[in-house]
Design goal:
The chain has about 500 residues and is of the alpha+beta class. Helix content is about 40%, strand content about 10%. It has a single domain, classed as Glycosyltransferase (Alpha/alpha barrel).
Length: about 500
């Protein structure tokens, strides 16, 4: 089989041409993030929240783990897979949730934030799945995998009212600058928007004002200068759609566009990486802004996603992806932008190819144990502490559900379920091309079904043979983490350690 270069992608480029395309982004001073610099008062707060977590947590819910894994090992209908995955997640959420579904204490390693913030993530990152299933099924009640009926509308309605009520034990709290809950507010707002016909529209005026008041906190808060700008924007778009009140911060949106470097790629902040946050962060959020308000900058949002997918579609194999960057535990969301592009009628990818990439990605990871105790594991397959960033907690991996959320949302409208699958590019041919905007080469070898992405520029010169590896947590830090309930793990972003080449065989992670 001969090597083929994709259309619109140059196979070679001079270093001078690459350098001419490097975009300089003016950096801003990074704000001091409290949880990154804990003092004695914060350590005491963390310890108290750790004790509350121990009191509130429930036994690990493994009732359907083997059943789900076996299902994803089969060449099963995608609609059935998505429906069962949503039910698996919902049933476990009802098991772990407390205080009228406003918090959920999942088992797993803690983040740098408090155990209570981790429990907010256990709700914020799961409710969009419930809301998307509601949109998909148009049924208020779900029949769980154990046969029990779950009132999805009631769960959602209670969660929003409890979480936004200062007098309720499940109150989500007063937000502050660089608060993790600012990030979580975006997923909560999305869930509210997706379920508006069943939840928001049935609230009284006083209840709507209560919910809106909590979300409006994001309007005056400082965030880190990277993809985080998209979180308050999502909240503001939802509030405008639901209440008519326009608080959209256009400066934040323009800053996001400053991070755009071409070929569909964004740098994650002025000094950030190019990694999979483009897939499950930037383009995911921009897709929802476009869905909430289709008249807001559609030309840029559609074209940038289409340009991204034009090259990104070559990353997918039947077994694995060339992973690079942080948050590897979000791996199930890798195909989210492919589905989003299809929904936006992009010519860069067919429905059949997007469907195949999405299904195979789920089959590969879930079929090899990526879901456990009702949640995506903190790793690639089974739990792997080396791959859990310090900002990630027990429920952070639910960002992995972002592909599922889009599939449930657009599947009926776009005939995703009925479409015939088309072969992935690696199943058709070998290829070799550059993505000039991020100075990366993509090489696919059809005979071995392997894809290698190699960056042509070092991220850091401060490295040695022992630094270019995944480090394990020390016993001392593990003990401290268990005592305080605060992450004390090594930073294992291989891009920042000096690794420049990544294979879909994912050998770096094993």
């Amino acid at each position: 089989m001969t090597t083929k270069t994709p259309e619109k992608q140059p196979s070679t480029s001079s270093s001078e041409h690459i350098e001419s395309r490097i975009k300089h982004i003016v950096a801003t001073e990074r704000p001091k993030v409290p949880y990154e610099h804990p003092d004695a008062k914060m350590y005491w707060h963390l310890f108290k929240q750790r004790l509350i977590r121990l009191k509130m947590k429930k036994p690990a819910y493994d009732k359907h783990d083997q059943q789900l894994q076996a299902l994803f090992q089969q060449q099963t209908d995608l609609k059935l897979l998505c429906d069962n995955l949503a039910k698996y997640v919902t049933e476990a959420f009802c098991h772990y949730s407390v205080w009228d579904h406003s918090h959920a204490y999942y088992p797993g390693r803690p983040s740098q934030q408090s155990a209570r913030t981790d429990a907010v993530e256990g709700v914020s990152r799961v409710l969009p799945v419930l809301a998307a299933w509601l949109y998909f099924s148009h049924e208020s009640q779900m029949s769980g995998l154990d046969g029990q009926r779950i009132d999805v509308v009631k769960v959602l309605s209670q969660a929003f009212l409890a979480g936004t009520d200062p007098k309720h034990p499940g109150y989500w709290g007063v937000l502050h600058d660089c608060d993790q809950r600012v990030c979580e507010s975006a997923d909560l707002a999305l869930a509210l928007w997706l379920s508006k016909e069943w939840v928001w529209q049935h609230y009284s005026e006083a209840e709507q004002q209560q919910v809106s008041r909590w979300f409006k906190q994001v309007n005056s808060l400082i965030t880190v200068d990277n993809n985080w700008h998209l979180f308050p924007l999502t909240v503001q778009f939802v509030l405008k759609a639901l209440t008519g009140e326009d608080c959209i911060d256009h400066d934040k949106y323009q800053r996001i566009k400053v991070f755009f470097v071409g070929d569909g790629w964004f740098r994650d902040g002025a000094k950030g990486n190019y990694d999979y946050y483009n897939a499950w962060g930037f383009h995911y959020s921009l897709y929802w802004l476009d869905q909430i308000d289709s008249n807001f900058d559609p030309e840029f949002i559609h074209q940038s996603l289409s340009d991204f997918v034009e090259g990104y579609r070559y990353f997918f194999t039947p077994q694995g992806l060339p992973f690079f960057g942080r948050s590897a535990c979000y791996r199930l969301a890798a195909a989210a932008p492919l589905l989003a592009a299809v929904d936006q009628h992009s010519s860069a990818i067919s429905m059949g190819e997007a469907k195949r990439a999405f299904r195979l990605n789920l089959n590969y990871f879930i079929g090899n144990g990526a879901m456990q105790y009702g949640a995506p594991t903190q790793g690639l397959f089974h739990d792997d502490g080396r791959l859990v960033d310090n900002y990630s907690g027990p429920a952070s991996s639910f960002w992995s559900m972002r592909g599922l959320i889009i599939a449930l949302y657009m599947g009926n409208r776009c005939q995703l379920w009925q479409a015939e699958e088309s072969p992935l590019m690696i199943e058709q041919q070998s290829y070799d091309f550059d993505i000039e905007a991020i100075q990366a080469n993509v090489k696919g070898i059809a005979e071995t079904q392997e894809i290698v992405v190699t960056f042509k520029q070092e991220y850091t010169e401060q490295q040695d043979p022992l630094s270019r590896r995944l480090e394990s947590q020390s016993y001392a830090n593990k003990a401290l983490e268990m005592l305080l309930g605060r992450a004390e793990r090594p930073k294992n972003n291989l891009l920042r350690k000096g690794i420049t080449s990544y294979s879909s065989k994912m050998s770096h992670f094993f």
